[in-house]
Specification:
Helices cover 69% and strands 0% of the residues. The protein has one domain. By secondary structure, the chain is an all-alpha fold. Helix 2 runs antiparallel to helix 3 and helix 2 runs parallel beside helix 4. The model has no long low-confidence stretch (mean pLDDT 89). It is built from four helices and no strands.
């Protein structure tokens, strides 16, 4: 996939704050933040982790795409919250099984 050359208005600070050329990194960021939501947070965390890795690769292959920080936030938050929800789910199941 080829990235078109930047327009002069896109070169400014907005492209540094919002990596619109690196959609996987941006998706990883939002999925990582939304992985705090109970019940669906584990699934969102796994998706954030995967999209973060894809976005990080894209940022390394195409430095003009930016988004390394967004990708890292998605990777870290996704892994952290996915593991947290998994551990919480297991402890709830174990507690429920021990009461019977």
């Amino acid at each position: 996939m080829s990235t078109p050359p930047p327009r002069p208005a896109e070169i400014g600070g907005v492209s540094s704050l919002i990596p619109f050329r690196n959609v996987p990194a941006l998706a990883a960021y939002y999925l990582g933040v939304f992985s705090l939501i109970p019940i669906i947070g584990g699934f969102l965390g796994i998706a954030a982790f995967i999209f973060g890795i894809i976005g990080l690769r894209r940022a390394h292959e195409h430095p003009e795409a930016k988004g390394k920080v967004h990708a890292w936030i998605g990777i870290i938050a996704g892994a952290l919250f996915a593991l947290t929800w998994l551990a919480l789910s297991i402890s709830v199941l174990v507690a429920a099984a021990s009461q019977h």
